[in-house]
Amino acid sequence: MALQMDLFDKTANEVMAAASYDEFKRRLLASGCGKCALAAGRTNIVVDRGSSASRIMVVGEGPGAQEDARGLAFVGKAGQLLDKIMESVGLDTDADMLICNVVKCRPPENRTPHSEEVEACIPYLRRQIELAAPEIILLLGATALQHIDKNKKNFSMKDEAGRFFTLPDHPGVRFMVLYHPAALLYNSGLKSKMWEHVKRLREHLGATPKRAS
Asked: Which H helix or E strand runs over 124?
């Protein structure tokens, strides 16, 4: 049954009531959502990138400048690096993954979204998970992890990255934490760890990865 966001918000409830992923996306894009302050500065609502029929969903933090301009998730420098990382283990981000974010509108200066912004937007992400029904959800970075797993308050990405786990709110889904590709752009020392983690993902999917040249 579709989640209700707000008994008095007819537009949001119509989005949430969509019976298919494609209809959900169409309604959200057309909604003109203004549930939080991020709406005032956006160019586009950024719903996703990739295939809703894939086994794998990827959840990041929020759109950046390129994503806001194009209306597609993870198409800037971090997204291009994510493409290369996944290609190195035989995964096509457009065909084999559905990529989305905790919030659908760009935070100013790419800052971390505020808690009230996340609370306004995350029901849309939960509905995406329901409708796409992925087998695996990859959480990129601390923001995605702490808003999906509410038990995570104080933690280190060093301890969490590369780990599989399950959550009672999402039966049948295995979660995996990965470093956000943006972190690798600033800290090249994380690249070898990321390689080990995506190899683990590929092995979980049932094939042996080949490292990109």
From this structure: helix 115-132
Structural domain includes residue 210 = no
- Give the pair of three-digit tokens for residue 119: 């609370």
Residue in the structure block whose two tokens are 């295995």: 174
Which tokens go with 65? 């400048």
Euclidean distance between the first and the last CA atom of the chain, given in angstroms as a whole number: 47
Distance (Å, whole) CA 16 – CA 167: 22
Q: Domain residues for 110?
A: 10-205
User: Does residue 5 lie within any of the structural domains?
Assistant: no
Cα dihedral 163, 166, 169, 171, rounded to 10, equals 140
What's residue 11's pLDDT? Answer: 86
101-113 per-position pLDDT tens digit = 999 999 999 999 9
Count CB-CB contacts under 10 A for residue 71: 17
